[in-house]
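TEACHING EXERCISE
Course module: macromolecular assemblies
Task: Read the component lines below, then compare them to the predicted structure of the full complex.
Student: A.B.
Group: 4
Components provided:
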Amino acid sequence: MKYYVEIAGRERLVEIQTGKEGLQVLVDGTPHPVDIAEVRGAGLYSLLVDGHSHAYAARFDNGDAVLSFHDREVQLRIEDERTRLAHEATGGPRGGSGPAQVKSVMPGVVKELRVAEGDAVREGQPLLNREAMKMENEIRATHEGVVERIHVEPGAAVDKGALLVTMGAAEAPAPATA
Amino acid sequence: MKYYVEIAGRERLVEIQTGKEGLQVLVDGTPHPVDIAEVRGAGLYSLLVDGHSHAYAARFDNGDAVLSFHDREVQLRIEDERTRLAHEATGGPRGGSGPAQVKSVMPGVVKELRVAEGDAVREGQPLLNREAMKMENEIRATHEGVVERIHVEPGAAVDKGALLVTMGAAEAPAPATA
Amino acid sequence: MTVAPRPIRKILVANRGEIALRVIRAAHDMGIRTVAVYSDADRTALHVRGAYEAYRLGPPEPAASYLSIEKILDACKASGADAVHPGYGFLAENAAFVEAVEAAGLVFIGPPAAAMHAMGDKISARATVSAGGVPVVPGATLEDASNPALVVETAKGVGFPLLVKAAFGGGGKGMRLVNGPGEVVEAVQRASSEAVTAFGDGTVYLERFIEKPRHIEIQILADEHGNAVAVGERECSVQRRHQKVVEESPSPIVDADLRARMEEAAVQAARACGYTSAGTVEFLVGADREFHFLEMNTRIQVEHPITELCYGVDLVREQIRIAEGLPISFGETHPPLRGHAIEARICAEDADRGFLPSTGTLGAVQLPGGPGVRCDGHVFAGQEITLYYDNLLLKVIVYAEDRPSAIHRLKRALYETRLPGLTTNIPFVLRVLDDERFLSGDYDTSLAEDLPAPPLDENDVVPVVAAALALHRRVPKAVVPAARPTVALSPWVQADRGWMSR
Amino acid sequence: MTVAPRPIRKILVANRGEIALRVIRAAHDMGIRTVAVYSDADRTALHVRGAYEAYRLGPPEPAASYLSIEKILDACKASGADAVHPGYGFLAENAAFVEAVEAAGLVFIGPPAAAMHAMGDKISARATVSAGGVPVVPGATLEDASNPALVVETAKGVGFPLLVKAAFGGGGKGMRLVNGPGEVVEAVQRASSEAVTAFGDGTVYLERFIEKPRHIEIQILADEHGNAVAVGERECSVQRRHQKVVEESPSPIVDADLRARMEEAAVQAARACGYTSAGTVEFLVGADREFHFLEMNTRIQVEHPITELCYGVDLVREQIRIAEGLPISFGETHPPLRGHAIEARICAEDADRGFLPSTGTLGAVQLPGGPGVRCDGHVFAGQEITLYYDNLLLKVIVYAEDRPSAIHRLKRALYETRLPGLTTNIPFVLRVLDDERFLSGDYDTSLAEDLPAPPLDENDVVPVVAAALALHRRVPKAVVPAARPTVALSPWVQADRGWMSR
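Instructor-supplied answer key:
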């Protein structure tokens, strides 16, 4: 099985081989001997690569792998060959720029709307302010686009995962109909 | 369901009641309100009895409950009503004084036999010496009786649970045939 | 002074988290019994399991549990406790709580209600300490906030830039920065109406804005025998959004002379309000190394352990002794300063997403140990970290013979720390510890504002990819981790469910 | 003296367990890189996860892993380490290992092979230190063990009661107590033949038996610059079956004068054998408070942290510095003794069943923390405790201003410690700490011999019954905990098994 993962700015092709020398991870064709052991029932792992010891915690968060090394946390998504082919056939997640849903990553209260429906926004522009715990945070646009719909009002309590804003594609030539 | 447990030198009859006031444990008929919570996946528990906080670890060891409070470990066996009745019917564990099997509680090597088959032994008398780790230990008779059979020889490596000695009942009138 | 001794035999700790454990530890170290209180979210918390007794307060919401004076006094009665320690936060600086505890005939382990009152209102605090000769940040009270001419005139007297602050505020709320006379009237209006909403009182005051200051605080202790002593300073300038992250003692910029002057001012501030127990006097220190009184915290601080390590004292034990009517164990002469201590506050938050609090269930917690490492935390495997309470998980505190060794040791200790299941600020703290400004000691409150994660190095690609792949192949894609109930089921309930499903 | 400096950049730690972690921590605190080695039983051990690099030695059996000089030197080569720290146990006192390490061009962090040789053979050690003027336990070497008349005559010269000891023995093996001249010939014969079997050398010697002695040892440090310094004593008289359980510093019976005399003798012993690095000189102290040299341990000791806490030094760091050719950081004047420290060795064993080692898988480990507590352990949730290695899990070390406070604090720290899944000696240690003799300070090596568990009190019946019932109802009787594989499966293997079973 082949896997695809985007890391350090590039997409890598990853494969696994098990031989009598042990396990090898191939990154873009280059083999690296690795030894991974899980600490029983603890969410912790020990990884040895060329003698170097990496201790880390690993978990899933909404389908992403979250890897906590001692000095950094890396969040990424792995796609296997099958899924990749399926997505390419359906025009799924990869490459698509359809409507994006901005969701609340935690429960809180909406404090202030910073945009209105129909506004064109640039990447990083604040959409609304939400308070969680004693802190107020800005929810920002993850890419350029147009605010298609705002689903909440100031003062509304929102759960984790609640839909806040639906974004449409940026002003652009009308999409060609298939 | 009624339960029987021998503790602090006496056998107690124990029952459980769940009411709107919470949970009650009845010991020999006297009710005590208790609140037990398990720490998720940790083998640890918090028990509140009349406001007193008891934190303990609990596990099973060969059917016995092993309860590790902060300053003592208590090992005991609970028998429920059904099992008690079954044992009484078959003359099982309780009250019987049939042949007893002396087993090794840990892996080790038999160093020396201290008794021979046919010997009458008193409670606590050493039966054999076994070495585990760097330590030699005496395996002693748990009650008075006659050494019926010795299953190991000096120098033999034994696994945990290995049968070492079978003890017969002490010199006594021949059992009446049923 | 003759003080009737009040021996304490059983302390109820009206708090949760690491500070509840800290107080329980001090009490047990002294052979005093302890009583914990808990909300339903904390049924299996370490303070409940660690105390001799434990009483339920109510549901998780603080107002219905840790902030309920009535329920806490009920637990005092049920347990027969003879004293209450408030920790920090919750009711720790609530004078009405002090009065209620004392009215119930119990000892409050903290300052007198009057001192708390005097220092709780920032305008009154400035006036009180000024009268005692302590330098305050230049500023002025607004006699009439609705008179624009008077506001502008008062502001000019203070000088620009200045801050508009709420008298009863805290945590940066209702605070406004004003650069010149043209902005001040509107700023005062807005700050005042925000303060009404947030704190129920619209009183505001003006304070000179000290640019890129250092936050340095002095620990004081005072008893009923007339002893008042300062126990050195803590450098608290590493802050993100007005929250301290890394504290150290001694401060890299405080020499013996400055320390002596700040300690004297702090003792004067304590004497000015008739203080007893442990307290902290916070100062702002400008680039000119002049110090100005900022506020007094009338409680034990989160960062108190660094003082304990450098001076060989136990501040919570001293609080308990003082509450018993005993003198400070070392009178007015504390052991000499020795070595260097640093504390890192490990919080459940994502520094790379605006310090958003993170939630989840902790896996197998691994705490650091070995020489020179002290851990004050409340985390345990299986613990549910929720949004109900403060997101401080653990304080990793190190002690070494000098500052460079302490920094090395803290990095080592954080390297050992594992809190699987949550995103924490450990990577962020390590970035602080590696920052040139921090290493040189020449830093101010702007240090932690801009410390982005360095990009992933090409050398890290193989371990990261291997780790991700191992996780991916272990957990089939279809298996989404099931949502877990917030409160652990009692084994009874689980067993009974078992019966039913047969 | 001119010594060429040998800066160390990467240390390979030829050990496992808590001491491997201790050395790794010291190295990281100094900014030195580390290399771990491991047997298959330790693949996920903390020392493997805590070091920067890790290399496999072989299967769990010590002879095939931690005792294999060849494999350890291979790992040195593979990692490019420039120094080796042996910890204690395994190869720590093996002079051939020192020679092999040095022959490979690496620095051995410990004493010279010659000093190890001189102190490894107990007869030679007695001779060496006697020549240096150090009092030894009255005794004599047996010139001809097969000559009964000579044996009896020599024994009479030593005096009764006496011990027959193997010259190359340890841990009480091959040792025999003789009460009078009638028993001595047979005892020497048996001891000698046991020593041949156990240590490959039948040489024995006679030593006066000191009844109910105290075991008190002196920590020494010596460098290549001619500095040799003693850093106080450790009281190690709480022993069960010749294994130390609780150690404290200072000793309750050592005053400044006795300390000075013992320290001087220890420094003489170190100088007599040309010692460098950290070492310990063990003495027996009789009821008459006279002290006698027992042996010298040419390595870091398990109980070294109590010295570190009382004197504010880092002994492992000093070992590394000395190995680098640097002088002791404080020369011959160590910081003054301050406060009191106690260490408890927490072991996987059942004190109520003859201290049988216990095995099992650890659940959620809970380590103690807060003020004055240091934890040196190697335990983690999910760890399999096997019979392959020493059963020491954890050292709980406390520090306080005086002995009574330290005892309180240790009890508190043990109250917090949880090691679910195993039977440990914590209840036993608490019995020691509550014993009248220990509390008074007037105890000897017989203290821990007879401390049975007190019978269960009627007040304990309800909590115990409730706890047992909760467990009973939670786990249906039919479900026997499944046997677990000894080595955790790699997630790869698990995933692949998953594929196969589809």
